[in-house]
Design brief:
Keywords: Cytochrome c-type biogenesis, Membrane, Transmembrane, Transmembrane helix. It is a multi-pass membrane protein. By secondary structure, the protein is mostly helical. The chain folds into 2 domains: 144 residues, no CATH class; 169 residues, no CATH class. Helices cover 74% and strands 0% of the residues. Helix 1 runs antiparallel to helix 2 and helix 5 runs antiparallel to helix 7. The longest helix is centred in the middle third of the chain and has 40 residues. It is flat.
Length: 320
């Protein structure tokens, strides 16, 4: 296949992944509707599920797995379309595609252990939305890596950042659900009623808190490795300086500080619960700002290569 054909294959595979994820979402929404009369303690096991509900869950999970395969094919095709072939995370579009891929992968790997199937609709909505944004607004034609990016550190640094971003994003979704359910449980208890509907079918707040903490605890050392170890090493190799006070570097470090505060809060009795949850959501906000906001609104970042040709200007300014 030619490079143009590989690029077309990558785009088609990503479109297929988006469609499959959407069908998986529809299947899981059908599962929700079939369990609309569930109450607290029901719906999280298969004892009370009807055959139709169980089938919708199986179909949704299977479609998600097929979507992941198409997602992977898109990443492979993107890398093969470059001349020379390269890893497919050289700009914002490719980072978004890779990040959502790892989100789905982490979900499928941990789904059985943590019983996360109830989370599928939220995950699929998030992933589908990001893929749509990437395809419509972030897409860039395939191009060779610039000199600063053409390094083995690209693989080490960016893949660790992508994995951490995926784990933090899943953890953020769990934290948001924790806040919603915690408030609903308190309101139901005050009124002397039981929860019904979807909130009754997701795990209790202690379980949500534990799983979200594990996701963040997994992502934090990976993010540390990306931001505080491989990033400075790569910066020194590319620009002869470990730290440049670049907006991307600053916001990545702010993200690290916020998540460090969250993990500390989780181990401090007086700061658990709502305070820790809010810190986790602030961390997710700074994470995605450092990914998207800096690239769109900063005019001084040496990481502007994520938007293409602007990197040539910043590289020249650094080498003068």
């Amino acid at each position: 296949m030619t490079d143009i054909q590989w690029e077309g294959f990558s785009s088609d595979a990503l479109s297929a992944a988006g469609v499959i994820y959407f069908l998986a979402l529809i299947s899981h929404l059908f599962e929700w509707a079939s369990q609309r009369n569930s109450t607290v303690g029901k719906g999280v096991t298969s004892d009370d599920e009807t055959r139709r509900t169980a089938m919708a869950r199986i179909i949704g999970t299977t479609l998600t797995a097929f979507g992941l395969v198409a997602h992977l094919a898109s990443l492979v095709g993107r890398g093969m379309a470059a001349d020379p072939n390269r890893v497919p995370w050289g700009n914002m579009y490719e980072f978004a595609v890779a990040g959502t891929f790892f989100m789905v992968l982490i979900y499928l790997v941990t789904m059985k252990k943590f019983r996360l199937v109830w989370m599928a609709p939220w995950l699929l909505i998030f992933v589908t939305a990001v893929l749509m944004i990437a395809a419509i607004w972030l897409y860039k034609p395939i191009s060779p890596l610039t000199e600063a990016l053409d390094s083995y550190w690209l693989v080490i640094h960016v893949v660790s950042a992508v994995i951490a971003t995926a784990a933090f994003s899943i953890g953020g979704i769990l934290v948001a659900l924790w806040l919603v359910k915690n408030r609903a449980e308190k309101k139901a208890a005050a009124n002397g009623v039981e929860l019904t509907g979807y909130l009754a079918r997701i795990p209790d707040v202690k379980t949500l808190d534990r799983i979200s903490y594990r996701m963040h605890a997994f992502g934090f050392p990976v993010w540390t490795f990306a931001v505080l170890i491989t990033g400075p090493i790569w910066a020194h190799e590319a620009w002869s300086r470990y730290w440049n006070w670049d907006p991307k570097e600053v916001w990545a470090f702010i993200t690290w500080v916020v998540y460090a505060a969250y993990l500390h809060a989780r181990t401090t009795a007086g700061m658990r619960g709502k305070v820790a949850a809010i810190l986790a959501l602030i961390g997710m906000a700074t994470l995605w700002w450092s990914f998207i906001g800096v690239n769109f609104f900063s005019t001084t970042s040496v990481h502007s290569y994520a938007e293409g040709a602007a990197e040539l200007t910043t590289i020249e300014s650094l080498t003068r």
